Structure formats: structure tokens, C-alpha cells
Amino acid sequence: MTTNQLQQNQSQPPAESNKQNAIVTRVAEKVQSMVANNQINIPENYSIVNAVQAAYFKLTEVDFKKKTSLIDSATTESVAFSLQDMAIQALSVAKNQGYFIVYGDKMQFTRSYHGTQAVVKRMSGVKDIWANVIWKGETFDVEYNDRGQLAFKAHQVDWKAATGNKDDIEGAYCIIERDDGVQFLTVMTMDEIKTSWSQSSMATVQNKYPQEMAKRTVINRASKAFINTSDDSDLFIGAVNRTTENEFEEGRKEINPEYEIRQNANTEELDLEPVDMSIPHYQAVEPNLVLKQGKLEFEQVVEEKEPATTNGPGF
Fold first, then answer.
1. In sequence order, what DSSP letters do the residues of 18-39 get, joined into one string?
2. Does residue 256 sit within a domain?
3. Mean pLDDT for each 10-residue chunk of the chain (315 residues)?
4. Which residues contact 224 (CB under 8 A, 6 or more apart)?
5. At residue 306, what are phi and psi to the nearest 5 degrees?
6. Are 236 and 41 within 8 A, CB to CB?
7. Residue 22: inside a domain, yes or no?
8. How many domains are contained in the chain?
9. Comparing C-alpha atoms, which of 20, 5, 14, 45 is closest to residue 100?
10. What whole-number distance in Å separates Cα of residue 108 and Cα of residue 101?
11. Which of 229, 251, 275 is the last residue of a domain?
């Protein structure tokens, strides 16, 4: 190979990277179009472009152990769907509200418990949501209210009891408060939390951060009823449910994504033709996100493009 050929190849990014970059940009534009058409509501302080751009940078970070980036490890369809679900929920990886995981060649967006709290607060009629851990030595009291629902009564906290040790946690609870002041309580014992954890492949994280993971588990359980009874946009609720299904089976148990990913991941495949990057203008077949009967689907379009000249996001 000549020096000129080598320099030319080094200056031209891979065709697949260009396609994935185009998907990221297209997702941002599509979600913005949904907002403009009143199909979803996004908080005024949420920048779709900034959030997707931050996610793009996160996805292009190279894992030095695997010698590749997340975006190059997954199909373009799963990358687009995971970015779409993040943006529709108005979440940001820069705020630690979620993260991307690749199982096989499928990418999924998973919410952190901070992300789930943010999502629930966005729902119609919800004022606030919070969770706490109950440590050994603390007193936690509940009662049945006049509607026959379990209600919070008191939690006498001993700050010295918060050892950070999983064996010192007795349980966790989550309270969701509506705009009218009515509160809904969800309580889980540590045995219930451990049962949920036993179905998960996140044992290392659970053992290292048991307090945070206990909150995450009880928040997810508490929020499920509000998610499924909400009168918010179907597109918004659909994105929330898809993200939740990445973590739960039958609405209760956390799943091991290693063997459940085939059931929960998007299975739609696209036949993408190879692109010749050596010519100034080329025909690239890329998936296009379109809205059909309330659902986002991919269709193939052929566009004439010029090769990218930078390695940046391009928007």
C-alpha cells in the first residue's frame, strides 16, 4: 500500500461509523418532530440535542479492554431504539439517569433509580417520589389509612446504623405523592429485595452498593402501577415500559439480561448495503425512523451523501 493510499484510508472514517452517527442525528430530529407535533411533552429545560450528543460521546468511548466502543458493538437499529427511548423519557446519561448496555449485538437503555424518579415526576398528577433504606436498629411504622391502603406512619432514623453493609439492611420503602397530597407507600423487606436480586446478573453492583440498589429495586416496583395507569402520551409510556422490561420479568423480578435479551430486545433487522467510501458521493441505505399508528418503525431510504470530514457528531 502506498503512502497516499494509507493517508487516504486514515482520513476516511468507516462507513459503519458514518451510518451510526447519522442514526444519532436522525433520532434527535425525530424526537424533536414528536414534540413539535404534540405527540410527547418534553420539559422546557431538557435539550434533546444536548442529551443525544452527550450519549453519542458516551457510546463512542473506546473500552480499552475490549478495544472497541459501545456504538461499534451493537446493531444500528438497537442503537437508534435505545437513544430514542432515552430522549422520549427526557433522560440524560450526563446526569447519571441511565446507561447503555450491549448484550450480544443488541444495545439497551437502562434507567438508574435517579432516572426512574425523574420519569415518575414527569407523569400527570405526580408531585414527588422518594425512597429510603431501613437499617437494623431503626424503627419503621406503618398503618392502614381510611381507604384501607398501607400508609407511612414514622421512621425513626439512626444515622450510625447506616453501615453500608448489605446484611445490616432490613428493607426499603418508596413513597409517591400526588399533586393532591395523597401518598402511596411501597415497602419491601430485605428478603424480598434479595429474591429480586437473585434473578439478576448485577450481583457485583448489588454487593458493592447495596443501599443504592435497594432503593432502585423498591422505586421500580412502586412506580410500575403509576406507569401503567398514567394517561400520559402512549409514546412516552411505551418508552418507559420498554426500559423497565429490560430489568424486570412479569413486572416483579429483575431479570438476567444475558438470557432474556433475545425476548426483550428489538428484533427488527435491516439489510444495509455496503458503502464505497472511496468515491466523493455515494449511495447509503440507512434506516429512517417513522411514526406508524402510534409506533416508531424503521423503513429504508436511499440518500445521496458526501463523506463525513470530521469525527465529531456532526450536529
1. HHHHHHHHHHHHHHHHHHHTTS
2. no
3. 47 53 82 90 89 88 80 88 93 91 87 91 91 96 91 95 94 95 94 85 78 92 82 83 63 35 36 32 36 45 32 28
4. 244, 248, 251
5. -100, 145
6. yes
7. yes
8. 2
9. 20
10. 5
11. 229
